[in-house]
Amino acid sequence: MLPDRGVAGVRPDRADLVADLRALGVPAGDLVVHVSLRRVGPPAGGPRTLLEALREIAGPDATIVVPTHTAHNSTTSPAFRAATRGMDGPRLARYLDTMPGFTADMPSSGMGAFAEHVRLSPGAVRSGHPQTSFAAVGPRAAELTEVHDLDCHLGERSPVGALYRRGAHELMIGCDWERCTGLHLAEERVARPRRKTYTCFVEKAGERVTEHFLGIDHDDTDFAALGAALDRTGIARRGPVGRAGALLTPLRGAVDFAVRWLTDNRQWMEAET
Q1: Does 94 fall in a domain?
Q2: How many domains does the chain have?
Q3: What would the pLDDT profile of 15-63 be if each residue is shown by its tens digit?
Q4: What's this model's pTM, rounded to 2 decimal places?
Q5: Long-range CB contacts (< 8 A, 24+ apart) of 156-164?
Q6: Alpha-carbon torsion angle 193, 196, 199, 200, nearest 10
Q7: Ranges in the chain, pLDDT < 70
Q8: Is residue 6, in this structure, part of any structural domain at all?
Q9: What CA–CA distance (Å, rounded) separates 28 from 47?
């Protein structure tokens, strides 16, 4: 990752962020964005300032998309395993009783202040997946979030697939390839990917119900190596945004390369039956 830069305590303003995004080469058009706002500065005016800067650079026809994933309503998430490690039966039962069902207005889990700001912005639309939802603002917000099938966390029938088809770019600010959702789309495209059963809670008609579904067993443990290989292709651009290092990549190019890399380098593909 590009090292963070700048002077501690100095908060970048909108003009600073616009200049940085322009220097990075952020084009006009749709963007899926991942942000560690703490690393950015945070900017004067908070996440609103960064969203304004992104919309200025990406243009009036662009839609800005952010992950608004939720792990705290799932019993198969790493977050659940970490939270319940060491619990005895009665304590675990009490914990399960307190877990919420997913609703469209449920806060995201660990996605950061910028993602929450976008989710709560006027006109924002959120996809309906109870685990890996996305929120979007802009003229194609409804179109990009309309389809998000339960068995398709980050694949063709999700906002990630829609963004790929739109020719969007992916921007990571203060984070690196490990946050790139396009690489998860690549996982969905490899031949015979490993699958697993997921369980989560969803609120329906005022009642919490349990959903079980089969999906790709997503795994980001080799994304650092995959990202290093992507960097060597020259497909991505790196530079500072505020005090943070940032990474910009065309989604199509990153996904297409990642499919080939995963096919050649991952060993967990299911055998043909």
Answers
A1: no
A2: 1
A3: 999 999 999 999 999 999 999 999 998 888 999 999 999 999 999 999 9
A4: 0.92
A5: 156/185, 156/188, 156/189, 158/127, 158/129, 158/132, 158/134, 158/185, 159/32, 159/65, 159/127, 159/134, 160/32, 160/134, 160/184, 160/185, 161/185, 163/30, 163/32, 163/65, 163/251, 164/251, 164/252, 164/255
A6: -20
A7: 1-9, 268-273
A8: no
A9: 20
